[in-house]
Write a structure and sequence with these properties.
With 492 residues, the chain is of the alpha+beta class. The protein folds into two domains: 122 residues; 275 residues, no CATH class. Helix content is 56%, strand content 10%. The chain has 24 helices and 14 strands. The strands form five sheets. Strands 3, 4, 5, 6 and 8 form a five-stranded antiparallel beta sheet that branches. A three-stranded mixed beta sheet has the order 7-11-10, covered by helices on one side. Helix 4 runs antiparallel to helix 5 and helix 19 runs antiparallel to helix 22. The longest helix is centred in the first third of the chain and has 27 residues. It is globular.
């Protein structure tokens, strides 16, 4: 019947659960800000679940009386119609729930293609605010409506996602910019949604009996609340822009501080094609794009001590030759030197010099596995080594859909061979945002079928390895570093 059926029905069940435990909500309407009570918002979610369930029952009945050769067509129609209903509901609700749909749009590569494309609308094309509401928001933040502030203003957004939407504009001094406008009320919506997040994440203990959900809830609450503060995002974005300025393939738009506030973020307008268009390019071009994304994610982590924790297809713009513009710096995690040293210890004992005993010791010290848990060192090593598999191989490795899907199953299949380990696994605070690598980044690589000697590239980025360039892109980057005379940033 297709995985979208399970997904849609699961959304319906989730709506009922969320409605039972989450507190007050706020809904951002496309024409005006409309505050809605907890009951009203939960009715919207429950209605989606109920509609999906009724549609599924009718579909099953219709299948019984349909000839076999038409059943596939009937299934396809139902899958697409159901997905469109989910997209419409989550898109209009905005905020945290819309992020669930965004994640689903690229996470499960087993979905039928037509279903994935429908969900992909949530990445950058959600239902936008009305132009009047946008004008009022800009005026409240910057002192005048956009038509007066800018030489030119495009009222049609170029992207509309879970927190805000983006408009093209030209400043009075002729600078082409992208202006991100936060949805009024979305801060209250997410803040209230997170008030009882511990009840939601507490359900993860069914999958991971040894899990302490408190650090997860604390970390996600802090990061998501930070994401609502565009001043903080501007600071994070400028940090990356300063670090990568002039880089051969990594581009971060410069912030325009005089046109930015806590709810408005203005930065240089970037060029490039969206993710789906890039997927039509040659294998060589797709692999160059993947190499740049990899260097940005892990180079920023190990060389800058910062991880941009929202890797999803809507946050990239692509140009030929591996040039990628990285957008959206709301969910950024800064790591201490001690935390980075812990990550490097894990790499040493699982990749460089594999040692199950030492690896178990580090895993326990970092809090990923409960001390003295009733599992063997080999079981712990085998479970966690999957996440390092593509860098354990010193040779060409394809990160494809199968690897991405296997990674998700590896994390959540509590009935598999690693069930004993899952019972003692925990997720400390410093690892919460990093799980987006496993859940998001590798899913993106799976769609690209990203192919490279990832081990050699990784050794350029790991500070304790600091190997010479292993690819033509790496050589270009080394020349860029030499020209900048910036030894502190070597390896990105």
């Amino acid at each position: 019947m297709g995985r979208v059926v399970k997904f849609a029905l699961g959304i319906g069940v989730l709506a009922v659960v969320v409605g039972a435990v989450w507190r007050r909500r706020a809904r951002v309407a496309t024409s005006a800000v409309q505050r809605r009570s907890r009951t009203q918002r939960n009715v919207t979610l429950a209605r989606m679940g109920g509609t999906t369930a009724v549609s599924y029952a009718a579909h099953r009945a219709r299948r019984v009386f349909t000839q076999a050769e038409r059943r596939e067509e009937l299934d396809r129609s139902f899958e697409l119609r159901t997905t469109e209903q989910v997209v419409a509901t989550l898109g209009n609700l905005k905020g945290a729930l819309m992020k669930v749909g965004q994640l689903a749009s690229y996470l499960d590569q087993g979905m039928p293609e037509h279903v994935r494309q429908a969900l992909a609308q949530l990445q950058a094309d959600a239902p936008p605010m009305s132009s009047g509401l946008v004008d009022a928001t800009v005026a409240a933040e910057l002192g005048a409506p956009p038509q007066e502030l800018f030489e030119e203003w495009d009222p049609t957004p170029i992207a509309a996602a879970s927190i805000g939407q983006v408009h093209r504009a030209i400043t009075r001094d002729g600078r082409a910019v992208a202006v991100k406008v936060q949805y009024p009320g979305v801060d209250d919506a997410i803040g209230n949604d997170l008030a009882n997040a511990d009840a939601i994440f507490g359900a993860l203990t069914f999958l991971y009996p040894g899990l302490d959900p408190a650090p997860i809830v604390t970390e996600l609450r802090e990061r998501l609340i930070e994401e609502l503060d565009y001043r903080r995002e501007a600071t994070n974005q400028q940090l990356f822009a300063d670090h990568y300025r002039g880089h051969p393939t990594i581009h971060v738009p410069e912030v325009v501080p005089e046109l930015s506030t806590g709810r408005i973020l203005t930065s240089d307008l970037a060029e490039g094609v969206r993710f789906d268009a890039m997927l039509t390019w040659s294998d060589h071009e797709r692999n160059l794009a993947a190499e740049t994304i990899y260097r940005f994610a892990f180079g920023s982590l190990y060389r800058l001590g910062v991880f941009n924790g929202d890797p999803h297809p809507g946050n990239y713009l692509f140009e030929p030759g591996g040039r990628v513009t990285f957008l959206d710096y709301g969910l950024v995690k800064h790591f201490t030197p001690d935390e980075l040293a812990g990550f490097e210890e894990l790499i040493r004992h699982v990749v460089i010099d594999p040692d199950p005993v030492e690896f178990r010791r580090v895993i326990e010290r970092l809090g990923l596995v409960r001390a003295d848990a009733p599992v063997t060192d080999e079981q712990v090593f085998e479970y966690f080594s999957h996440f390092y598999e593509f860098v354990r191989v010193d040779g060409e490795y394809v990160i494809d859909d199968a690897y991405a899907s296997q990674t998700v199953r590896h994390m959540f299949d509590s009935s598999g061979p690693y069930a004993p380990v899952m019972k003692v696994v925990n997720v400390p605070t410093e690892f919460v945002v990093l799980q987006r690598i496993n859940l998001g980044l590798y899913a993106i690589f799976g769609q690209i079928s990203a192919t490279a000697n990832w081990r050699r590239i990784a050794e350029e980025l790991w500070t304790f390895a600091d190997r010479p360039p292993s690819t033509p892109m790496g050589e270009e980057i080394a020349e860029w570093h030499a020209a900048r005379h910036d030894g502190a940033a070597v390896g990105n």
